[in-house]
Amino acid sequence: MTNRAHIPGSAWRKSSYSGNNGGECVEVADGIPDAVPVRDSKNPQGPVLVFPATAWTRFIATLPAGHA
């Protein structure tokens, strides 16, 4: 884990994998080569998980259809 200060130039956005029901959103930062930083939108100053891009892709592939 890291915090936002360790991700220079990050541009956070709501993940396309977050639901539209509000409150439970995952944000990801674009523009980080070979990595996918992820944080809780309810706590933007909190911890950030940084996944290797290949691991994130494998994780997303395991989600059931309609839940991604």
Describe this structure in words.
The chain is an alpha+beta fold. The protein has one domain. The protein contains one helix and four strands; from the N terminus they run E-E-E-E-H. A four-stranded antiparallel sheet has the order 1-2-3-4. A hairpin with an 8-residue loop joins strand 3 and strand 4. The longest helix is centred in the last third of the chain and has 10 residues. It is flat. It starts with 10 loop residues before the first strand and ends in a 6-residue tail after the last helix.
Average pLDDT works out at 78
**Series of H and E elements:** EEEEH
Catalogue the unreliable spans. none
Broad structural category? alpha+beta
Q: What's the short version?
A:
This protein has 68 residues and is α+β, with helices and mostly antiparallel strands. 15% of the residues lie in helices and 28% in strands. The mean pLDDT is 78.
Summary keywords:
DUF397 domain-containing protein; DUF397; alpha+beta; 68 residues; four-stranded antiparallel beta sheet
Secondary structure: elements and pairs:
Elements: E1 11-14, E2 26-30, E3 35-40, E4 49-52, H1 53-62
Antiparallel strand pairs: 1-2, 2-3, 3-4
